[in-house]
Amino acid sequence: MELTTRTTANPSMPHLIAHSKNTTRLKMTRKRASPSTRTMATPQLLRRPQLPSITITSPERIDEESSTRSSRPSDVLRLLDVLQLPVDADTYSSLIKECIDSRDAVEGAKIHAHIQRTRGSTRITRRHSILTDRLLLMYAACGRLEDARELFDQMPVRDVISRVIMVAALSHGGDHVEAAQLFVEMHESGCARGSALFFDAVMAILGSCARAGDLHLGQQVHGLTLKLVGSSACAHVARSLVRLYCRKDQFDRAFLAFREMRRLAGNKKRNCHSSSFQSVLRACGSVGDEGWSGMQVHADTIKTGLDRDPFVGSGLVRMYGKCGQLGYARTVFDVIDSGLRDTVCWNAMLASILGQQGCSTLELLRFIGEMRAAGMEPQESMLNEVMITLVLET
Known about the structure:
Blueprint: E1 16-17, E2 27-28, H1 59-69, H2 73-82, H3 89-102, H4 105-119, H5 129-141, H6 145-154, H7 160-172, H8 176-189, H9 197-212, H10 215-228, H11 235-247, H12 251-265, H13 274-287, H14 292-304, H15 310-322, H16 326-335, H17 343-354, H18 361-373, H19 380-393
Antiparallel strand pairs: 1-2
Helix pairs in contact: 3-4, 3-5, 5-6, 5-7, 6-7, 7-8, 7-9, 8-9, 9-10, 9-11, 10-11, 11-12, 11-13, 12-13, 13-14, 13-15, 15-16, 15-17, 16-17, 17-18, 17-19
């Protein structure tokens, strides 16, 4: 079969013409192309297909582009302004929440400026106090204490929410004096009475008292809580008091506060925190009762199942070591699962061995061998004590 071309009278109509006696040739007649355009007349099936270009983008580039394309809260407000659509309070609250979750104070300040501009005043009116509380929480969560204080001073109405937020912000910001003054003002105004947020303010100010070492105010807040809320809701307050008493070396009071906390918690595991046990165990190691108070705390850890916790276990080992009860320290150490023993736990046991009078060199070397076999290394200060002990023994 042969494919040829020739000029015909009607270029638009191809003709099929049969030829020859023995063979039939298929001829397609059409207008002959000029030499300059013959390459353009190449049949479509003979051309190399034009494949689409493929660009391989790295995952880092994809993340960068997606983050660039993602709209920010200020972009949403800008779009609504272009469309001349009003922004309601729910939209503002949602955008402020995004800034709180992302800790983005820059975007939050833009939303704050937009609210001021659309309301036609530099202050937010009483009707928009909910937005003010959200903005105050945003500044506090982002660590912008000065902006939070300025907004709080401009508020025409300061409800219990704004006061509690400001007490917590000042407390975490290290301004204990102003936090205490604001807490006293809130109590005297009576706005927090009967409110569930009063408990949050109490926890914030007790944390501030613990950091500042203000034992007197902490005791007053504890008494106020017992009077207004009752003992059934003071387990968390007692936990804060344990930390406060330990920082002020009031170990007897710390232990009493801990016993009160355990009584209020009802010996329920879900209400127990390893940090509370660690604080009171440090106190028990300094009471000087040969470990009696520490044994009571140890019994509580067994009841709650926290005796196998490596953090609590390390505190127990350290406490028994300070009280001269090396046998109890070793028992607690052996109870902790070997896979959970970290460097802190091993060094606590090593410190207990070193702290004993007449420390056995053989026992000391044997324990260091166990420690290194477990892939742990003694602290440098511990190694220095070991070297001194070995020299004195020889």
